[in-house]
Amino acid sequence: DQQVKQNSPSLSVQEGRISILNCDYTNSMFDYFLWYKKYPAEGPTFLISISSIKDKNEDGRFTVFLNKSAKHLSLHIVPSQPGDSAVYFCAASVGTGANNLFFGTGTRLTVIP
Amino acid sequence: DAMVIQNPRYQVTQFGKPVTLSCSQTLNHNVMYWYQQKSSQAPKLLFHYYDKDFNNEADTPDNFQSRRPNTSFCFLDIRSPGLGDAAMYLCATSRGTFGNEQFFGPGTRLTVL
Fold this sequence. Notes:
The complex is a heterodimer of chains A (113) and B (113).
Chain A: E1 4-5, E2 10-14, E3 19-25, E4 32-38, E5 45-51, E6 56-59, E7 62-67, E8 72-77, E9 86-93, E10 102-103, E11 107-112
Parallel strand pairs in A: 2-11
Antiparallel strand pairs in A: 1-3, 3-8, 4-5, 4-9, 6-7, 7-8, 9-10, 9-11
Chain B: E1 4-7, E2 10-13, E3 19-25, E4 31-37, E5 44-50, E6 53-56, E7 64-67, E8 73-78, E9 87-94, E10 103-104, E11 108-112
Parallel strand pairs in B: 2-11
Antiparallel strand pairs in B: 1-3, 3-8, 4-5, 4-9, 5-6, 7-8, 9-10, 9-11
């Protein structure tokens, strides 16, 4: 039972435009959400996170939006750069202490120069 | 640079032949995790160590075991690999407090012949 879903396996965007990656979750107990970026032959790298007490978190070109009522979050990348081409994983966790992360299946972003 | 190291990067074993995957970290994090990721699927948590406390996910097969002899090292033992165990195995670490992101190694790709 997939509790975190990324329904778009892939996304292509022109360089300089906005990339929007979407993620839905089913478990209302999730209270912390993260985005990871993964390049080929490397492990996932933490990108940005958001707590359920917020609805937006921004870090440079990356912004994550959380809509708790819709159980939906999105990652915006503006402007998109070719180096952003990677697989992006959405993840969620419950509670405090060691975080058991529940991952989505990932979205492959390709930024076209 | 502080990091999470996994050896080997590629492992080939035969059906039923025990195999051990290794993870080490220089981050001095108290939590270490093992994930299994099959092709086009989300990484799935197998178990984690919070310091010396072992936490097994309910649906992790008995075929999978883990050892953590010290803070820096953690091993994944697959006692009798089946064809369905072929996957990427990711090791991760975290400081274990609420909301901390996990740091991943590059993974070990296991092939079962």
